[in-house]
UniProtKB/TrEMBL annotation:
CC annotations in GO: cytosol
InterPro entries for the chain: Bact_Lucif_Oxidored, Lucif-like_OxRdatse_MSMEG_4141, Luciferase-like_dom, Luciferase-like_sf
Molecular function GO labels: oxidoreductase activity, acting on paired donors, with incorporation or reduction of molecular oxygen
Protein name per Swiss-Prot or TrEMBL: LLM class F420-dependent oxidoreductase
Signal peptide bounds: none
Source organism per UniProt: Umezawaea endophytica
């Protein structure tokens, strides 16, 4: 890899961290190696630049830029500008979003191939959002690796087999720091509610052995517990390490909060167990 990620990073929607100048810097001091900015950021990626300017060595990655919404030519120019100012600290994550959100969503695999053809970013500085076998293989062939979202350690093991050795595998993991099962599952269920209606995700879970019944009524406890790591900091840290044991190089940690904001104290507590 041309960029350094470390074993653990943070996944958060763009717009939450750059408003607090010391927040991303604290993540770096705690030991997290990367900040993944989600929510389909596009345009000039001001959020990426803002975080890079307030940190010293933290890698910033997009998780992910939507290929249907952001022209490859513009993203290429943005990459060159950011990399010139902060060499080796920006990783471009791109993906095809999901069909329910894109009216012209036709042949996403072909769209990804064409986009990668046009994207003037070195292969070792770009990753692909990938869940299924075909896109995982594309990630292995055309990028530094894969950034799967809302997956389990079992998926990570399968993804590693498909990617092969030497390719980056950086799954995202939802976490809830709550030991009460009722409260933890309520928050976890709310965090995955949207994805239960998106066939890219549901298809992936069905491939992993879950059943249609697991997708009903907000998701079964079995599915919720598999997708969202909840419990004490020690219990959550164990789940995060399970991805590494299954073949991941890096895990992007998304702390779920009731209001969708970021919880700095939660990352402090997790850091005590992870580093």
């Amino acid at each position: 890899m041309a960029v350094e990620l470390g074993s653990f990073g943070v996944w958060s929607r763009a717009g939450l961290w750059e408003a607090e100048g010391d927040a991303a810097a604290e993540l770096e001091e705690l030991g997290y190696g990367a900040l993944w900015l989600g929510g389909s950021p596009g345009g000039d990626l001001d959020a990426v630049t803002a975080v890079l300017r307030t940190t010293r060595a933290l890698t910033v990655a997009t998780g992910i830029v939507n290929v249907w919404a952001e022209p490859a030519e513009r993203l290429s120019a943005t990459f060159r500008r950011i990399d010139a100012e902060h060499p080796g600290r920006f990783l471009v994550g791109v993906g095809a979003s999901h069909p329910e959100a894109v009216s012209e969503y036709v042949k996403p695999y072909d769209k990804l191939v064409g986009y990668l053809d046009e994207l003037d970013v070195p292969d070792d500085r770009r990753v692909l959002a990938a869940l299924g076998p075909r896109v995982l293989k594309l990630a292995a062939d055309r990028t530094a690796g894969a950034h799967p979202y809302l997956v389990t350690p079992e998926h990570t093991a399968t993804a590693r087999e498909l990617l092969g050795a030497g390719k980056l595998l950086a799954p995202e993991q939802h976490v809830v720091l709550e030991t009460d099962p009722v409260a933890a599952r309520a928050l976890a269920r709310k965090s995955i509610e949207l994805y239960l209606g998106l066939r890219n995700y549901t298809g992936n879970w069905l491939r992993l052995g879950y059943e249609e019944a697991d997708l009903a009524d907000g998701g079964s406890d079995r599915l919720v517990d598999a997708l969202v790591a909840w419990g004490s900091p020690e219990q959550v840290a164990a789940r995060l390490r399970a991805h590494l044991d299954a073949g991941a190089d890096h895990v992007a940690v998304q702390v779920v909060t009731p209001d969708g904001g970021h919880d700095r104290e939660a990352f402090r507590e997790l850091a005590k167990e992870l580093f």
